[in-house]
Amino acid sequence: MATSASSTRASRRPYVGVSATGQHHLGVGSALDEKYLFRIEGPTDSPDDDVVLEIKQVRAASGAPCVATTSSLDPNRIAVGRARISHQPFRYFAYVRRGAKVFWVHEWVEHYRELSLRDRTVKLEDLLEVAYDVGAQLGRGHPSQLGSGGGEAIRERQLRFMEANQPELQSAANELADATVAAWERFRMVLGPEPGG
């Protein structure tokens, strides 16, 4: 009995190739970086098992003395940072060099959403939830990958430090917020108006 071409093509197969590519300019800190999306065909003809990979340029960590790395273009610092603050590591993490540039690769997250101040569907409560989640990830994650363990003790010391230095921390947070708003305004001038704005 002969099988149809469609049923044969729908059988399992390895990832077979790139079906679509494109450059994008999403993001805030990375909006001006060179970035591409690649759609990789999955094991069947169904689009549901395709994988989208993002290929993003690695920038030098200049002006960030808190980032310790052996090379300013070392993509491993991205993997280490992700391992410390996320619930799961990147899928398909890799890096590639093209001339003097270094790019890192990872699977594009399905729930990614680019927010805009003009987006009327975003409520203050939503932003507060995001801010809380970011703080929780940073607070729980930073000590979680220390080789010597002791993450709980480090977190307890962090909490005591915050309670003892609340006024200074609040002042520093206000200064950082003002600096962030000023930097955002400069960034918007470089990036230009939003589409449809």
Please render the helix and strand layout as text.
Layout: H1 5-9, E1 18-23, E2 35-40, E3 51-57, H2 76-85, E4 94-98, E5 101-107, H3 124-141, H4 151-164, H5 166-191
Antiparallel strand pairs: 1-2, 2-3, 3-5, 4-5
Structure in a nutshell:
Helix content is 37%, strand content 16%.
Count every beta strand, where a strand is a DSSP E run of 2 or more residues.
Answer: 5
The percent range for strand residues is: 15-25%
**Range of helix content:** 25-40%
Total number of domains: 2
Gyration radius from CA atoms, angstroms = 21 Å
Q: What would the principal axes of the Cα set say about the shape?
A: globular
Low-confidence stretches: 1-10
Average pLDDT figure: 76
Query: What order do the SSEs take from the amino end to the carboxyl end, as H and E?
Result: HEEEHEEHHH
Report on the structure:
The protein is α+β, with helices and mostly antiparallel strands. It folds into 2 domains: 13-107, no CATH class; 124-191, no CATH class. 37% of the residues lie in helices and 16% in strands. It has helices spanning 5-9, 76-85, 124-141, 151-164, 166-191, and strands at 18-23, 35-40, 51-57, 94-98, 101-107. A hairpin with a 2-residue loop joins β4 (94-98) and β5. The longest helix has 26 residues, at 166-191. The N and C termini lie far apart (60 Å). Mean pLDDT is 76; it is low at 1-10.
Entry keywords:
five-stranded antiparallel sheet, alpha+beta, disordered N terminus, 2 domains, single chain, 197 residues, 37% helix
